[in-house]
Amino acid sequence: MYAIIGTWKMSLEGVWKGREMLKNCAGAGDTVTQAVMQAEDQPEFHSVGYGGLPDREGRVTLDAGFMDGDSLRVGGVISVEHIKNPILAARLLCGRETNCLLSGRGAEEFALRKGLPLCDMRTQDSMERWRQEVNGLGANFSPYEGHDTVCVLALDHGGHMAAGVSTSGLFMKEIGRVGDSPLAGCGFFCDSRYGAAAATGLGEDIMRGCLSYEAVSLMRRGASPQDACREALKGLVDRKLSLKESKGSISLIALSPRGEFGASTTLPLFPFSFGSGDHPARLYRTGWDQPVQAAREEDLKGLD
Questions:
Q1: Cα distance between residue 181 and residue 198, in whole Å
Q2: Is 161 helix (H, G, I), strand (E, B) or coil?
Q3: Which residue in the list 7, 31, 61, 149 is annotated as catalytic?
Q4: Which terminal CB of the chain, N or C, has fewer other CB atoms within 10 Å?
């Protein structure tokens, strides 16, 4: 049995390639890394990697995290500007007993020592969006209205699991702002014994519920990935509503050691991709109080 799941329409190509890798006996860690890189390298995905949306000063700062489900080791980078594929740095940091989560200059110096490719992550399009916003000509663009963090979970033939995430975070964010994505337990969590989960949406809300850890904890207690996503998200939403807040913009995916998958969201529409030994890679969709179902192309127009 092998399986792979990723967030948003932008994960489909990486999930398709990842499924082929798993079919050919690649490990879960390598598969997750390659699938995330597939999204990081595409400038049309404005909330991940190259071409990500800038902060208030016009800098594209990126976060990424990686977790090995066998050892529970994690690695991550925070607020990096010039690492071409932040997920590669996060993967290399995973396995260290100390210094596994690096930020800013320290993370970039680590990447340089490891020979990782560096580049200017700004594109003409991303900077034009930033200039329009600075000049008051923007359309209140928000990555959460269409897509944001790319999250990938994988299970390989050997029963090994891994999780990886990558994002450029909020458009026009405050200098130094960090969301849930590079934080284990919030943006991602993976334990090969019980399953893996990852979250996408407004990081400030996701951190309040430690959603990825909560979903895996529910699977540890016997919940299916679908029930775990639904219950974890419902717990946080109920709490927010009790505080007279909106339910927010949050989506959650999960994968079990048996290759079962699940997803839940507060949004009207959340697309994600999944493939396994029994199922070719394809897009699925769910929505608030809606079941998971196969997605139609017309459902996803304008979404990445």
A1: 9
A2: strand
A3: 149
A4: N
Rounded Cα distance between 147 and 142, Å, is 9
Distance, in Å, from the CA atom of 83 to the CA atom of 88, rounded to the nearest integer, reads: 9
Question: In sequence order, which ranges of 145-188 are alpha helices (DSSP H)?
Answer: none
DSSP letter assigned to residue 53: P
Of 16, 10, 48, the closest CA to residue 31 belongs to 16
Residue range 112-151, pLDDT digits in tens: 999 999 999 999 999 998 998 888 865 555 544 444 899 9
- In angstroms, the CA 23 to CA 274 distance is 14
The structure tokens listed for 288 are: 């608030």
Q: What CATH number was assigned to the domain covering residues 3-300? A: 3.60.20.30
Q: Which two tokens stand for residue 169?
A: 């975070």
35: nearest Cα among 65, 71, 5: 5
C-alpha separations of 89 from 10, 224, 283 in Å: 21, 32, 28
Tokens (6 digits) for 42: 């595409």
Both tokens of 25, joined, read 């006996």
DSSP 298: G
Residue 133 confidence (pLDDT): 86
